[in-house]
## 1
Amino acid sequence: MGVRYVSRGRGAREALEGITSIAFDLLSFSAIIVLVVMGLGIIASMMGIFNFAHGEFLLLGAYTVYLTSALGYPVWLGMLLAPLAVALVGFLLERGVIRFFYTDPVVAMLGTYAIGLVIRESVRGLIGGLYLSVPEPLVGSFSLGAIAVSKWRGMIILVTAAVMTGAWLLLTRTRLGLQIRAALENPALARASGLSTTRIYALTFTGGAALAGLAGGLVVPIFSMFADLGVRFLIQSFLAVLLGGVGTFEGPALGAAVIGVLSAGLPWVTSPVLADVLVFVIAIVIVKFRPGGLLSRGRS
Amino acid sequence: MRNPDRTAVFNPVSSRRSFLKNTLWMGAVATGSGSFIIPPAWGQSNPIKVGIATDLTGPIGFAGNANANVAKMVVADINAKGGILGRSLQLFVEDTASNESVAVNNVRKLIQRDRVDVVFGGITSSMRNAIKDVIVTRGKTLYIYPQLYEGQECTPFIYCTGPTPAQQCDDFIPWLIKNGGKRFALPSANYVWPKLLNKYARKVIEGNGGEVVFEEYYPLDQIEYSATVNKIMTGNVNVVFNTVIPPGVGPFVKQLYEAGFTKKGGRLSCVYYDENTLNINAAHEFEGLASCLDYFRAIDDPFSAQLAAEYEKRYPGTVLFTAGSAATGMYRGLKLWEVAVKKAKKVDRETVAGALDSARIDQGPGGPAEMVPGKRHCKMNMYIAVAKNGKYEVVGRSKGLVDPKEC
């Protein structure tokens, strides 16, 4: 590292570069987790259902991008198609299967788990159980001082910010958003007021699926295409929703940011194997003291 | 327990047994095409039974299927030439399903139901450890393990035909020091193979004047490596000796590339990288990656090329004949065993093992191979290859057969 031999000015600059580098890495991974969690969080918060197939919705989005690219079309086209394709799958599943489970969340969990398993093993069959690279639309990195920053990871931070803002505006500032929240708050009253909760639930689930598809499409160039891509994310996403608390839009997103920072940050200070466990331990401790989620006090 | 029906009459667990009997077909349905038998092409009342236990399904199915393909190819070839000792070979293939508990049951079928004369297979070390007792200790059967691995498997009647740490490191690490530098980083997946391989590699690195900057272990499913990459970049590492496995290796190599490691003259290396792993990353991301194995498709050896062409003709598609998936070790194992049985003129375990102990084949993937007497490991040629534009270029070949230095 050479810090011992150099002047103070250079030492300070190196320290600054180190901090910038860490900050970007934490921000970038948190953005990925937030993007991944958003769809799950919206479905869990607005419909009271934990979608265990969320990881596989993400996988389907990733597969759409992989397929588009493998067939010779541009990757960005696949990224536009991914949310649409997964939204369609989500819509069909909601209409065909999931709507029968709304009264029984535990059965819904098992049902979505089964759906996820079918999707995952089908994709495994389709790609022959291999690990395949998917090119990113923006290749390489740009320099920020002496550190190199991945262009595509930078792009994901921007997209996450945009999608977050969009989803938040939709839920809090539009008529549709009001209806969705009304259907969550009191379905019976919503129906009595002339709202079709059936339609709203279908729409919400489809929207959540689309977000998962988008997330999958955007992150697959970073993590490469493989059948278990969704599994790891599913576990982290659940932890994030648990941490952030169900029932709000901001809760799961905040929880995701915390999980992202912890998972990317802890390996800097402790051994990675320990860090992996510590993320869960810390999250569980927080949930113990804030059972309603990080934002619970402000809301109740 | 030859006649379970008779015992059932006075056995209190009879209902459970008949339940098991009646539901066995469900297991057969669940395993699907997982297990199959290939009878010899020509009539033979007394075939030699060859058992293959490999991962046809699950995450490493691509490797297991390559192993099964090689076995089918070699057995068909031996049968076409008249079999061994005038007897044909009958192949019994069982799926170990990348799952140790499933595997133990299926391997038991090979031993107890099919009564095979020899078992080839297992890819991961955890699989070998799970099934070896069933085969060797309780099954009293010969076991040949084909995969490159961490070494130290010295159980009698287990013969290893894949490369050991000595074979993968002794030539390779000095080459890395010469073509990379002295400062090594050892990022690794947290299981037995990387741990024992690193232990050996560290000895060779330090013995050749190099140093290990860090050796670190990650959860097997970790896919974010920014902290590691940063440590590599700030620690002025010259050589990354990687044992992170998929799914982590894809994002790790990409992050390393984006941080500019190879652009700044760093050397990336990974000793399980073969033709199967070429698609995990884009070509530019692992340009210059060096690997050391017993075979590459690109090596200059007429017999190996002929073998690969024959395989590709029989099994076109994505299941490749590669060294990292144990396909080369499988070929070597089958042919060495053939030599041993011919020499032993019998198929019982002790006699065949005695002959196998010093068996030699003149041709195989990568060249000849021979067992080191008393060591149950195999001498073979080793090759160093470097990735250029998404393909391997062979840059080094061992001077003669390399000693496994085991047991």
Note: Chain A has twelve helices and two strands.
## 2
Amino acid sequence: MSSQTSERVLRAATSRWRPIGARLDRSAGSVFILPAVLVILGFSIFPLLASLYVSLSRLSFSEGGVDLKFVGLDNYAKLIVGVDQTHFLGVVGPITPVSIAVLAAAYGLLALLLYRYITGPNRTAGGLVGRVVTVVIAGALLWLIANTILTSGRPGTLVVTIVYVGVDVAVQYLLGLGLALLVVQHLPGRRFFRVVFLLPMMITPVGVAYLFQMLTDTSKGPLYPLWARFGLTDVSWVTNPWGARLAVMIGDVWQWTPFIFIILLAAIETLPHELVEAAVVDGASRWNVFWRITFPQILPATTTVVLIRLIEGFKIIDLPNVLTNGGPGTATESLTLHAYTIWRALDIGGSAAVAYMLLLLVTFVSVTYVNLFRRRVAALT
Amino acid sequence: MSRHLAKALGLVVGVGLMAACASGSNTNSGQKFSGVTVRVVTFTGPQIAEPLQRRAPDFEKATGAKVQIITVPFSDLYQKVLTDFATKTNSYDATVFDPQWMGDYVPPGYLEDLTDRVKNDSTLQWDDIAPFFRDFSATFKGKVYTIPLDGDFQMVYYRKDLLQKDGLKAPETWQDYIDIARHFQGKDLNGDGKADYGSCLAMKRSAQSYWAWISIASAFLQSQGTKQGAFFDLNNMQPLTNNPGAAAALDVYKQLSKIGPPTQLNDDVGNSRGLFITGRCALSLDWGDIGTLAIDKTQSKVEDKVGAVILPGSKQVLDRSTGQLADCNATLCPYAVNGVNHAPFAAFGGWSGAINKASSAKVKDAAFAFLSYMSAPKQSGEDVTIGRTGFNPYRTSQFTNLDEWTKAGMSTQAANDYLGAIKSSLQSPNMVLDLRIPQSAYYQQTALDTALAQFLAGELNVNQTMNQITSQWNKKTDDLGRQAQLDSYKASLSVTK
């Protein structure tokens, strides 16, 4: 009897304790990651919110300390409609046939994409709203790019940054992919070149900038004999806006192609040989092997590496800062450099506003990119 | 037992302390600042930091004070020291900085008032310092806050040999400067068979270019003496950047951008100095540095071929009552020489030492003694003759005592030329004081510098440039309070009305 009772009590107790234990088990995960979450909140979310507040205020030094005065959206207004507008957004020139044609083509494409989504089978209300917002923002950015670059106007730091990122990432990807495909061939010296191709990435960006400063100097520097041979020593291409931007882009491409190269190389080298061999046996051409077998299989790696480079690319500052200090004029100034030059004069609010615009741009581009490409690629594989 | 132990311990500690004190006073007897450490922050250099680092051990030997020289990149110095003082971190006891920033440092009370100290210090020999640096550069609202260590103002250097050969005189006006530059542009000036340049200026963005433009503009904008100011109207704080005088200066600037090396738009003073002392330019505009670099045997190819003159001027100046350019006359340009208004520009103002008010009294005393030691005629007289120190003359004794200069390798003739140009600038009652109001860094390094770079690159025309500078300056003035900024501007010019 007593043993029966104690057994029952025990069972009751276990059954009472079991849900608590289970709950503890379930929440153990959260408890364990709580310190990490708090650290991230402290080091990442707090500065983010603090800088948002800073971007809405003006800092001044007063008797015995610092004053942060709330000014609302004044710092943003300066960039979009105020004294810094031409610097940030650029100057819109009168329309040209080229700008109209490019815009028409781009808008047509956007409309087509939207139409296909609306008439497609998977549409949802949320998805539609998201896409309409994307199309509107993308349309506005395209309008700005076309009307500042393809006309007699001039691009501001926003458009210059977009151009850097667009051109750099595209060229880096093509070169990186080409080099990766080359190095997986059984060519002599491929191990040596694999290391050599990686070197630029190891150099600090400021070092790269000084390197290119010397290389682009036509009147002195290591390439002087070459310029002299073509009689170009009295022409400085870094004092021309597009020449200077080109120099910055060449430097960036040179430095970051290796990053894409190494990721794609790893992806290609892990591909199973059987598929390629089977295709070759079936008489597929080399192009078909690449386009139908290799490329689809490295798409996941591709989308990831391009996303990383996109986000990194928006933060370009070292090269234009050292190479030209953002000049001639504001021709090579990126958004980060724009924020830096304002910050240097201790206009911390204005600088934070530029940084927030950059954050919005990067977020917009990344989210759009992930939605448009990565999900599709994930569905494919 | 434990009481015994405590007693014993107390005894040991007490004896130890006494011994420590005794030994301390024994070894450092007679040393005023033994055990004091002074942390001085300045920019990376090698200029400016070099003489401070070189002389700190000597100072320690003489006084016992240990001086730590902390260096940060120039572009960070302003905000680094300011945020350090503002957040009460106070990791620096003194700073050797740009006195232009006094407008930001003095009103919140970060700097020690040195008025009484400089007058009672015999080492410093305050009265030997040229009046401009004493009364304007070191002074804010009538009180002294800095000790000058360097005399900065811009002047024009020319190749004496070339001008003499072609029967040309040193430029008196900016038009002369352009004409001479045109004359030599494309000719071989150093005998290497390659075409050289009429004038080499630093026009790179975010470097020193805006000072060069102000050097040009001053001649058109300020004619009534230092207290008139060259940046704002003293009645309403309206910028003097949108008028025919500023337009004339922009025009000169643009012309000069086309008479020079092809890389000129991307050249800073490092480049332009290098080009000048290797004999590739007929003219240049610079601080005192070219004078001492030109006698540096290791790199100079123009030893004894360099002449220097006060900044060229203008025969027409802005008449502020009408807002138009007008010919100089006795009332409009009281300080004109041969009908030409010269307004030598004390660009930057010269590196100066200031002391953190929040440091302890003993440290402040030691910091003052160190700055005074650095500025004293014995030390500074030697330092200003050495190119790598970055220090340029600012004391009367440095002009009268030619021995130091000839000892450094200058011929008597070259020394007279160089010092003559400096002396005529320093003695000018129409010297232009650099802008010293809160956030002057924004007005000049950000707004003015960017607009000038855009103007040179063709992004803006003359009117757009003037409008952009004016509207950005006005916006900043309104943001910070027009009256407060005006008060600061007047205080910097020691205008009391």
Note: Chain B touches chain A at residues 75-76, 78-79, 82, 86-88, 104, 107-109, 195, 204-207, 261-266, 438-439, 441-442, 445-446, 450, 453-460, 468, 471-472, 475, 479-480 (CB under 8 Å).
